[in-house]
């Protein structure tokens, strides 16, 4: 029964990675690889989040990063939305900021305010404070343990997505977070040092992502949350080359390690100006935020990649009936194949779980009807 297949996470059950249960629902993976599906698969960014009362209850006992470092807690939080909704994928509960932490940057989570960075990089010589990127994967063993435990506890119900954030700019440069002014000051005043930092980050991200697949992740999503702040010129100079490099090196790393390839998703928020380039950056799936018209996006990227997205998260404040209509329109616009339904960004803490359920159900219902017609 499903209830037992998503039971309590106990770390003593941890198996060897090769001993995973057989996958029962591969719709998400087939859509990601561009294969035909009977319906449109759906998952939500931040589906394990504060909008769920059980999430708030689990998280109440410890601070944010302590939770991230507990494989049992991450497993439990990852599974919670799947106990409520018939989602087609799980995404491991973690945070993109564990990478800067592993590189030696101090990151604290201030309740009600979000992440704080007490000692950002101010001068070029501050780059020497960063740890060797080759050590990052070993620092993040707790993420790999969480993935292996969760994959076992999922009991093959749906695939498990691993992820990382590309540059998490604010964690390195501190202030000016709403405008990214401190980070962009570096890009304009210290372009060489900026590239040096980006090389360090890429060298850290590649083994981290390969390690997630070795631990049991069946797909990978790369978040570039600040594409819109960079704009076309800075993005093509300081983000795109590294986004391409990550996919190329992760794919090579999987091959070298003897691991099967997994689909990779790139989600560059507000990066609509670079859709064509992102579609050719070596990722099977391009995630879209809600500012992009699906038909236009499809015209621009062609038929060789799968698209993912892109309902405005705030649409979930609408009535369940209205959510159904918006989903129907979205599915019509994207078309039935090479498409994974999602929101255009993560779920917000004040959202009604019933409305998240209505979104998921509407995708399944209308996508089946769309195929019949």
UniProtKB/TrEMBL annotation:
Catalytic activity: uroporphyrinogen III + 4 H(+) = coproporphyrinogen III + 4 CO2; uroporphyrinogen I + 4 H(+) = coproporphyrinogen I + 4 CO2
Class in the EC hierarchy, top level: lyase
Pathway participation: Porphyrin-containing compound metabolism; protoporphyrin-IX biosynthesis; coproporphyrinogen-III from 5-aminolevulinate: step 4/4
Pfam families xrefs: URO-D
UniProt-recorded Gene Ontology molecular function terms: uroporphyrinogen decarboxylase activity
Compartments where located: Cytoplasm, Cytosol
CDD domains in the cross-refs: URO-D
GO-annotated cellular components: cytosol; nucleoplasm
Keyword Nucleotidyltransferase: no
EC assignment: 4.1.1.37
Role played: Catalyzes the sequential decarboxylation of the four acetate side chains of uroporphyrinogen to form coproporphyrinogen and participates in the fifth step in the heme biosynthetic pathway. Isomer I or isomer III of uroporphyrinogen may serve as substrate, but only coproporphyrinogen III can ultimately be converted to heme. In vitro also decarboxylates pentacarboxylate porphyrinogen I.
Subunit structure: Homodimer.
Protein name according to UniProt: Uroporphyrinogen decarboxylase
Gene this chain is encoded by: UROD
């Amino acid at each position: 029964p499903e209830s037992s297949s998503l039971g309590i996470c106990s770390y003593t059950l941890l198996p060897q990675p090769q001993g995973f249960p057989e996958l029962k629902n591969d719709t998400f993976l087939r859509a990601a690889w561009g294969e035909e599906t009977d319906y449109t698969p759906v998952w939500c960014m931040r589906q394990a989040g504060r909008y769920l009362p059980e999430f708030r209850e689990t998280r109440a006992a410890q601070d944010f990063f302590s939770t991230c470092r507990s494989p049992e807690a991450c497993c439990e939080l990852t599974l919670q939305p799947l106990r409520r909704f018939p989602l087609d994928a799980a995404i491991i509960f973690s945070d993109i900021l564990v990478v800067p932490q592993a590189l030696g940057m101090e990151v604290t989570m201030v309740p009600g305010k979000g992440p704080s960075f007490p000692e950002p990089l101010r001068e070029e010589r501050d780059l020497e404070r960063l740890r060797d990127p080759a050590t990052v994967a070993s620092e993040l063993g707790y993420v790999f343990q969480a993935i292996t435990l969760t994959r076992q506890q999922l009991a093959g119900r749906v695939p498990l997505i691993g992820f990382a954030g590309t540059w998490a700019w604010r964690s390195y440069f501190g202030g000016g977070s709403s405008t990214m002014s401190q980070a962009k000051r570096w890009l304009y005043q210290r372009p060489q040092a900026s590239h040096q930092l980006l090389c360090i980050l890429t060298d850290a991200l590649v083994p981290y992502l390969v390690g997630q697949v070795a631990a049991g992740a069946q797909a990978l999503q790369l978040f570039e949350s600040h594409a819109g702040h960079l704009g076309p010129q800075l993005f093509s100079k300081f983000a795109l080359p590294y986004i391409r490099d990550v996919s190329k090196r992760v794919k090579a790393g999987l091959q070298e390690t003897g691991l099967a390839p997994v689909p990779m998703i790139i989600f560059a928020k507000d990066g609509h100006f670079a859709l064509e380039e992102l579609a050719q950056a070596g990722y099977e799936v391009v995630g879209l935020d809600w500012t992009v018209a699906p038909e236009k996006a499809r015209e621009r990227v062609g038929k060789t990649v799968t698209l993912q997205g892109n309902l405005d998260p705030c649409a979930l404040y609408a009535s369940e009936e209205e959510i159904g209509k918006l989903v129907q329109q979205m599915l019509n616009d994207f078309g039935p194949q090479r498409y994974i339904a999602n929101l255009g960004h993560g779920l917000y803490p004040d959202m009604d779980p019933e409305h998240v359920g209505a979104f998921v159900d509407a995708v399944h219902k209308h996508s089946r009807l769309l195929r019949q017609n």
